[in-house]
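Open question from group meeting: does this chain pack into something compact, or does most of it stay loose? Before anyone orders reagents, we agreed to write out a predicted structure and look at it together. Recording both the input and the output here so the notebook holds the full record.
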Amino acid sequence: MDTKIFELAAKIPVMLLGAPGIGKTAAITEFAQSIEADLIDIRLTAETPSSFEGKDFISPETGDLKKARAWWLQRIDTNRQNDIPTVLFFDEYTNAPDALQQLAYSPFNERKLHGISFDYQLSDHRPGLYVFGAGNRVEDETGAREMVYASKTRVFTVDFEISVKEWIAWAGNNNIDPKIQAFLYANPDALLEKPSTGTACPREWANLSAAIEQGIPYREAAHGTIRGAHEAKFCVFYNDSTLCPTIEEIVCGRAKKPSAVHLAAFTVVLATALKEHPRITQYFPIVYRWIAKQSPECEIIFAKYALELLAEKLAYNGECMTVLNSVAKKIGR
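Structure tokens returned:
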């Protein structure tokens, strides 16, 4: 997402709308870290009117009924005193009860509570407060509500989407299991489907990776995280991929020919593994030629993944480019 959109949140609220688990919160967290701001994450679905606005209490000095300053306003007060920026984030906005959405309307849209502004600037005249919201859309089938018209006219709305290619790039930088990356690259519909289909969101695939890394058997890990329509398919893929030879076995000449039943898992797992391999330019021609000997189908499938996943990393190596050019001709690109 363009950083200028994040910076716009210093002037008008920015609302990120998108499917569950696709990284809306992560994007705002990364922005807060980039400007060294305190991130105040208000989960509206977990708030109550009294916790959001501040609880009533009886003053021990006067006996009068008073209202405590809301916890998030106290945080903003502290940040203002310490001259550090604040990212105020109203999460799960469209899934919150109507009463909470109404209470959050003025703080989110106007930076005010009970008519009193809490906006501020830093001592060097940079913005002190950035306001964001995030939520699901009605079509995401999570029980979300449409934003009221008055709010829509006051915010900058971002349809927050993520492609499989973008998620794979993120996964490669965040130690997501390579076999999960390979499965989702070969089955992109498994990443971004609606909850009614019983399929998993990106966050659940990341949880699956963490479970497998913890040593939980892959079938248990899949059932405890992704479940649904792609659980069985992933388990078959994962098991098949364990029968594939490794890159090192191929390079050393110890690889056995895989069964045709495992072709899809075999090719995409190897292509994904090569993408992160420190010796990619040295090993790619060897791996490609070995695969080409197995079967024409295996070569074509691997060629497609090689062009999509590896071309950028191989572009400055003469031998690799020769192989890639021949690959492109074979599949008509």
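Observations to bring back to the group:
The mean pLDDT is 87.
The beta strands are 14-17, 38-43, 56-58, 65-67, 86-91, 112-113, 116-117, 129-135, 156-159.
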